[in-house]
Amino acid sequence: MLHRLPSSALLIASRHATASGGVCRAPVCPRARQWLTAPGSLTARLRQHGKVEVRVMRQGHQRLWRQEQGAIGNRFGHVREVVLTLNSHPAVWARSVTSPRGLKGPWRALKGLGARPLAELLFEHRGVARDPLWGQRLALHSPEHAHLLRSWRSACTAPAPAWVRRSVFWHKGQALQVMESFAPWVLALPVAHRPAD
Predict the structure, then answer these.
(1) Among 106, 101, 135, which residue's Cα sits nearest to residue 7?
(2) Which of 115, 137, 160, 192 has the fewest C-beta atoms lying within 10 Å of its C-beta?
(3) How far is it, in rounded angstroms, from Cα 160 to Cα 2?
């Protein structure tokens, strides 16, 4: 079963993560905290506000960020980056990574997911477990923020995300990390009651 966090269980990056993962400490407003800690499928929760579509920005074998290397246990892996649009407006930038072994094994469906939401892979499998969520604000001059900004600006001109949340999903001993970054206007939306996954 998936590990579900209570709404108060937001883990803010430690000093170690700041040094190695391109994040910084920052106060979290109540509405942002609700989005960062919302359990279950983010896609299903966004759908309570309108039509959600997936734009695949890039996908393939890449060198992983330092934080991802620690989470996945590999210097290189399969990376999938997408933008989720809500009523045709870019709402969430997401990056999913797994190891080559994970891609050949339990996460092989990631490669052929196309424009379908990752939630179809994560929340329809009873054998998938989820580690706690980490809520973070990316440091402005970090490589991670620079990459996100470039990718976001290639999709739209709206203000770029800054707050992200990360969690690692496990299936048959293989890790898949998902990072989701919310457009500022999304964090202003009310968080609906937990939808069905």
Answers:
(1) 135
(2) 115
(3) 30
